[in-house]
């Protein structure tokens, strides 16, 4: 097992066989970001209505918002609501089934 010293760049081999074309990759990134934004807005709406944590705690609002953003981002990256795939297919109708 090799340990990389702190601050040293990690060497990662490109995986050119499974990499998506740049146009599709950019569309997928944008669609993921949009889906994360939508999920984040949904989480915020639930929290503001009093249903997320139950009480309003002004000291924890910043941390809660950050946690919601991170949760929304991870959910979108893992498939989330499925909007990313729908958007990408819509942007590339000749697309890849």
Work out the helix count.
3
The biggest beta sheet, please?
A: none
Order of helices and strands: HHH
Helix/sheet category: mainly alpha
Low-confidence stretches: 10-17
Instruction: Give the termini distance in whole angstroms.
Output: 40 Å
Helix coverage percent of residues? 40-55%
Radius of gyration: 18 Å
What is the averaged pLDDT score?
75
**Percent strand:** under 5%
Shape: elongated
Quantity of strands, as a count: 0
Summarize the structure.
The chain is mainly alpha-helical and 97 residues long. Helix content is 55%, strand content 0%.
What would you note in describing this structure?
By secondary structure, this protein is an all-alpha fold. The radius of gyration is 18 Å and the shape is elongated. The protein has a domain of 64 residues. The longest helix is centred in the middle third of the chain and has 27 residues. Helix 1 packs antiparallel against helix 2 and helix 1 runs antiparallel to helix 3. Helices cover 55% and strands 0% of the residues.
């Amino acid at each position: 097992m090799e340990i990389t010293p702190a601050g040293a760049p990690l060497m990662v081999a490109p995986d050119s066989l499974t990499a998506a074309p740049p146009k599709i990759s950019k569309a997928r990134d944008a669609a993921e970001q949009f889906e994360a934004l939508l999920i984040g807005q949904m989480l915020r709406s639930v929290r503001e209505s009093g249903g997320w944590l139950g009480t309003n705690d002004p000291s924890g609002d910043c941390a809660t918002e950050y946690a919601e953003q991170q949760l929304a981002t991870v959910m979108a990256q893992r498939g989330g609501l499925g909007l990313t795939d729908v958007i990408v297919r819509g942007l590339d109708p000749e697309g890849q089934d």
